[in-house]
Amino acid sequence: MSFVQRRLLPTNSTLRKPLLARGASVPVPLLVRNKSTATTTTTPTTMGIKDLLVGIQDYPPEAIARLLKSFELISQSQAKLEAEREKAASILEAKLEVEREKAASILEKVEAEREKAASILEAKLEAEREKARLEREKLEILQKSWDHEINRREKAERAQTKAESAQLVAESRFSAVTLMQPFIEVGVQELVPELGSATKRCEEFAHRYLLRPDRKDLNDEARAILLQLEPGCDSRTVAKELLDLYHGLSKPVHSPKTLHDTTGLICAGELPLRAAVAVALVMLQRHGKLKQQIKYTNDVYQQTAWLRGGEVIAVKEESQNQ
After folding, report:
1. Is the pTM of this model over 0.70?
2. Among 26, 116, 207, 282, fewest CB within 10 Å belongs to which?
3. 114 domain residue, yes or no
4. Is 18's pLDDT higher than 80?
């Protein structure tokens, strides 16, 4: 027997015993949740309140009063729980709303900071682009000025070289002229005009017209010229001199007494540089960049051939022709 059943039984022991003896069952209140109204009601298990009261009308008034009091306490507890639940839900909703507003505020601040950073970065990039543009324009102006100055100097150097070669031609009418550098420079300037310095022009001239692609030996045309000038000279040593032709031309040629009574333009000096200079002179004549005829001498400064019109004419052959 449950505690509630014991509470509902009459307190009088004389009444309790007959009830228990007869096996009487006492209705037990049950809390039922009404789904349609979302409220909690108290109903007996198998009958309504009225039916319950009818069923226990024979009970003492004190038992009935205690039963009704229990119903009232249960109802109050349910109401209090419902109120607490609603209050907790309201507090939770308020806190969630505050958190949502706080999060939204933080997101707005982050977006504002992002836009601010993007704006600052874009301004800096624009400033850098403008700075780079100004620097590029400045460099272009300097480059044009530099190119103009280089062209001016190159024209001045060419004019000076032509003047020197003309002066040497005039001097050759009365004395021996062994300086071949101005004549080669003038011819190379006309044959390879796209390069700036005289050194680079001489290197490119040798590469295009005198040497093999590997630059270790003379090409066939230059070798044929060398065989007419110096049959016993190693073509590879001549090719090496042609690779550094410009600096080789600056080496002085000592004029012995045997040349004091000689006139004209003379290709003299030591081998293999003498042969390299002669091969370059003949090639310039063949391409129409050198019109003067030049005497070619041996180691003792005796003339052995003429360099004329792109051909090597031996002195003996010339005497026989005459």
Report:
1. no
2. 116
3. no
4. no
